[in-house]
Specification:
Chain A is an all-alpha fold. In chain A, 74% of the residues lie in helices and 0% in strands. The chains are: A mainly alpha, B alpha/beta.
Chain lengths: 393, 520
Amino acid sequence: MTDKTVALPGHAGFIKNNLRNYGMLLSLFAIMLFFQVMTDGTLLQPLNLTNLVLQNSYIVIMALGMLLIIVTGHIDLSVGSVAGFVGAVAAVLMVRYHVAYPLAFIACLLVGALIGAAQGYWVAYFKIPSFIVTLAGMLVFKGLALAILAGQSVGPFPPTFQKLSSGFIPELFPGAGTLYPTSLLIGAVLAVALVYTSAKSRARQASHGIEVEPFGFFVAKSAVLFAVIVFFAGLIASHRGLPNVLVIMTALIALYGFVTTRTVIGRHIYAIGGNARAASLSGIKTERLTFLTFVNMGVLAALAGLVFAARLNTATPKAGAGFELDVIAACFIGGASAYGGVGKVGGAVIGAMIMGVMNNGMSILGIGIDYQQVIKGLVLLGAVCLDVYNQRR
Amino acid sequence: MTAILEMRGVSKSFAGVQALRDVNFTVEAGQIHALVGENGAGKSTLMKVLSGVYAHGDYEGSIIFDGEERRFRDVNDSEALGIIIIHQELALIPLMSIAENIFLSHPPSRLGVIDRDTVYRRTQELLAQVGLTEMPDTLVTDLGVGKQQLVEIAKALSKRVRLLILDEPTASLNENDSAALLDRLLAFRAQGIASILISHKLSEVARVADRITVLRDGRTVDSIDCRAEPVEEDRVIRSMVNRDLAHRFPQRTASIGAPVFAVQDWTVHHPLHRDRRVIKGVDFEVRRGEVVGIAGLMGAGRTEFAMSLFGRAWGERISGRVWLDGREVNLTSVAAAIDAGLAYVTEDRKELGLILDADVRKNITLASLSRVARQGRIDDMAELRVASEYRNRMRIRCSDVYQETGQLSGGNQQKVVLSKWLMTDPKVLILDEPTRGIDVGAKYEIYCIINELAEAGKGVVMISSEMPELLGVCDRICVMNDGALVGEFGAAEATQEGIMRAIMRNKEMHKKVLQGDLRP
């Protein structure tokens, strides 16, 4: 019997084998380029880019939690309602009862955790399909948001809270005209750090005799990575600098990227989605981990709800409606499998960005909300079909 | 009498494993023909060829039915001629009524609307034929297994049946239900319907069969005309198991030490039917450096026994005491069992053993990730080193440890599973059918690994349905039947005939004693 080999010889083979890994990223760039041209350069204007980040931050934050849920083979339909509900709780606490911002913030995250625990309990320990539990949760929290706001919008929030979404990091070197050097510097440092760690990991792998990407390819990749980060940092820095929420988002992406790829708990989550029974017979506490992924989702949905409320500067009963669809779509566009076990943090983030760029670009082009939805739906279907086709090949 | 069915020179192989070799099999009109043989002898494969599950062209040889050569493309073709097979796992839909089940695929209808009166009337007629008095609108889930079996037969009768094939129909029935079912077969014979009866129970075979054919290793080795000569149980058993054992197993000189694993009065109940005892007060012991086999037929409770011991991964209301390495332990979770030094290599590696999408490395380290991690963070280089070590030591043939496990051959997949469990550094390993579905060369390698483990002082429990491999590898063989140990043989005194006799004899005896327990 012969074992199939996957490696093709030479550089061409290497690029071909890795094309799928970079396919999503290339699609994102293609879509950005398309809208950049179609909008006569409006898409990448510093102001618009900053808006793009702010508009999509809560989707990205929730996509991180949703990815883990989807990887374990579940789904959470309630995240939009939970985000809306937590925004309402925040408004009631801060506006009606004048609770201090940090205290209210922590209380809201705890509420999110409790909601996640309540839903995860039924899914993990009672084996009730997550689709049903979270569909129920979606209705419950949508209703509760309406109830505690008494059907009205509540606002405005204290200015310190608004800074969560509309604030920018403080400038250490003021007086550089329209440019914010601190942000540019942070971008450059980040870019150098990324290139440095990937070079180090490549060297380490090579020293253990693992096949690594060809040197030329590695240099080119690093150069592109460096240039792209510095370019975007430059754009951001020429508006008002780094938005606070972008800092939070980047930190979370890094954290979840690390957890999913490098930790025992991350590996166990993928194992549950890959084969739950085999995982449980290997001593993995599948029920507890499933429960925890829902708790985690609740906390992230709460954070997203706070960011969204801070951005609107008011809590409305309708807040969060339909977010779950964008979040789930982001994960699937990013290559997560509906059967569980497969999906990457980077993919989910890129998926969210693709959705965000399309929303933004189509709005600039003046395409109505009606056809925007049609196009987004088709892109979702197309992306997943392409992925399934690639896997069958 | 004339032959209704003749199968001539049928051969069939799966990926290099020869399942049937030149089998000739004839059923005469109005005959009950029993087909017996060990697990894996080829009985089910032969029936799948006959019923068209394997289409014409997938096998060699010819099928002559009613005097004409037939080339079935699928099950519908054989059903159209009246060849109906009733599988061991019933194909009824539990939450539908008896009538709906019987007329599921071809309900009498007018313009696509089901004619409920006709369905009801015909169901009543069919139920009367199989001796059931239930109302046609009774839900199948409300019937016992015995009656469900009779509903399956009624379903077969609703299609014009000429040849009825029953695969272990009485395996889960108590004595009364079994007798009722066998009486039906005799009644059908009187009506001219021929039957093929696959069964492990020689007494019932002897009671109803007109002819017994014995399959072994995919060949017909004996055929007994029960009308011409009396059925000798010993002759049947000898035909079932006799084969050459030399040179298929690596040698090992056993050095057996102190007991490393002991179980006392282990009792387990079924997770769904909580009153049903599945494991019935088993006492069991393994010593250091010892390989203990557990023989038995499918459904004897061996897997349930092993899984319930392994951190209660199966069963409810479990009682009994367990000692590992002289210390009494209470293993309430799989993680606790692994920590205590117990490993269980599952029977079904694809469903229960491996994550097929994940690479070889991730599968090997899955049960002991903490050994290559610090504070929850995986040291990927240490992981790679360990995985590569096992790859070399177990001679896993893969392009590298990053290859997807699903792409490997069965034997190599099994070595990945074994590596996973060896990495947990167990004191006792329970191997459940470790060589199922893998080729001869890979089997030999697995036997070598088992020998190495025993030589390293571990206790090894090997569950297998292949008696030759138990005889070739084990120092001691326990026989399990109906959830109890019913016999024990040292390596020197064990023979296939002896083991098979222990199972068969016990089956007859147990049924009388434990009838209450067998009722679902």
